[in-house]
Design goal:
- The complex is a heterodimer of chains A (about 130) and B (about 260).
- Chain A is about 65% helix and about 10% strand.
- Chain A is built from three helices and two strands, in the order αββαα.
- Chain A has a two-stranded antiparallel sheet with strand order 1-2.
- With about 260 residues, chain B is mainly alpha-helical.
- The chains are: A mainly alpha (about 130), B mainly alpha (about 260).
- Chains A and B meet through helix 1 and helix 3 of A and helix 9 of B.
Chain lengths: ~130, ~260
């Protein structure tokens, strides 16, 4: 019983991690509206693009975390009564999916960052 | 090119000067309407060709190649060959290349290669070279596509008993296909088609190859040849996706100048 519970939780955590990676990839690769933090105005806005200098890190992190939580919840329901064989099969599948998802997301970030030319902001008057 | 034409318009004809100076200030459809009004109110005026050429270039800038072609055909259908009509012929040849009408484009470039103007001769030479290179890439892409389809059909036919349920390799690749589909959502149409071709075609290739290998496990030298052949198929698919969507130049520019270049 304890082993089944541990397996369900492990597989759900793996599925949640996959959801986190997929969410991060989706928010980074698309121009879907996201949460932006504008440090000069010290406020958040929710839009596709930010007009003022802004960072989307917190927004992407929140969206990916939300996707991870949803996938984790789905996993808790999906993996409740798995046989040993099915648990091994899903364990293998999730490992491959998570590995390929991580690689794809890392490659996407590398492609975006490799040619990035940061433009420094002008100093604001005191 | 449009900026050069605008300067020429502004410097040579006062009737078009106001229109030319307003292009940046008003939307393209508004400028096109004004140019049409100018054309309608100045029948027989030699500046009509210039106005129509600018109109075609504005349509092209907006990605509306069909309307640009119609306007260019209007210029070229009139008798005589003014300097502006020769520029219109260059513009239409460029449109023909983009639409894979290589015969018409090469014919126009061949005619313009003997133009008295050095700039037009240079553009015609460059255009003809590009048309020939693009035609060669397209023929190679077609040959690779036929080869890929033949390989897939042959392998699917040989492995028809092992096609269902799909192999575990296909299941492994499904999330990547979904991620690529999501990434294609916010891309321009040509890039989106290329990504979807790559994702869908890759899945079919994987299904055909893995089903084939499930029945005929590679042994000996085939254990090296088969993965190399699969990698070759993937590169072939990538080449076809790029060429069939006219993305060759964009790919080269991305490698040279970077993603934001």
């Amino acid at each position: 019983m304890l082993e089944t519970l541990a397996m369900t939780r492990s597989l759900s955590v793996a599925l949640g991690a996959l959801g986190f990676v997929a969410g991060e990839f989706a928010v980074t690769a698309t121009t879907a509206p996201t949460l932006w933090y504008q440090p000069l105005e010290r406020r958040f806005c929710f839009d596709r693009y930010a007009a003022a200098p802004a960072m989307d890190f917190y927004g992407r992190l929140a969206a990916a975390s939300l996707a991870g939580l949803v996938f984790f919840g789905v996993g808790l329901v999906l993996f409740r009564h798995l046989s040993d064989g099915a648990a091994r099969l899903w364990s293998r599948r999730l490992s491959v999916w998570l590995g390929s998802g991580l690689l794809a997301t890392a490659a996407l970030h590398a492609a975006l960052l490799i040619h990035r030319v940061p433009v420094p902001l002008e100093l604001t008057a005191p | 090119m449009t900026a050069v034409l605008l300067l020429a318009l502004a410097s040579q004809d006062s009737g078009l000067e106001e229109l030319a100076s307003n292009v940046g200030a008003v939307s393209h459809p508004q400028t096109i309407s004004a140019l049409e009004a100018f054309v309608a109110s100045h029948p027989g005026d030699p500046n009509v060709d210039r106005a129509l050429l600018l109109e075609a270039q504005l349509y092209r800038a907006d990605g509306d190649d069909a309307h640009a072609l119609q306007v260019l055909n209007r210029i070229l259908a009139a008798p005589g060959f003014s300097a502006w009509r020769r520029d219109a012929a260059l513009e239409r040849a460029s449109l023909d290349v983009a639409a894979w009408r290589f015969g018409a484009a090469l014919s126009a470039y061949g005619w313009l290669a003997h133009d008295p103007d050095e700039r037009r001769r240079y553009q015609a030479r460059m255009g003809a070279a590009e048309a020939l290179a693009m035609r060669a890439r397209l023929y190679l892409g077609c040959a690779i596509s036929f080869a890929l389809v033949a390989v897939v059909l042959w392998r699917l036919a040989r492995a028809r008993r092992a096609l269902l349920p799909p192999t575990e390799e296909v299941t492994y690749a499904l999330p990547l296909v979904v991620l690529l589909g999501i990434a294609a959502l916010s891309q321009p149409a040509a890039e989106a088609r290329a990504v979807l071709t790559l994702a869908g075609g890759g899945l079919v290739l994987l299904w055909a190859n893995s089903s084939f290998w499930r029945l005929r496990r590679p042994r000996g030298l085939l254990r090296v040849v088969e993965p190399a052949f699969a990698a070759g198929q993937a590169f072939g698919l990538l080449y076809c996706a790029i060429v069939s969507n006219n993305l060759w130049h964009r790919l080269v520019e991305t490698f040279v100048n970077g993603a934001e270049g």
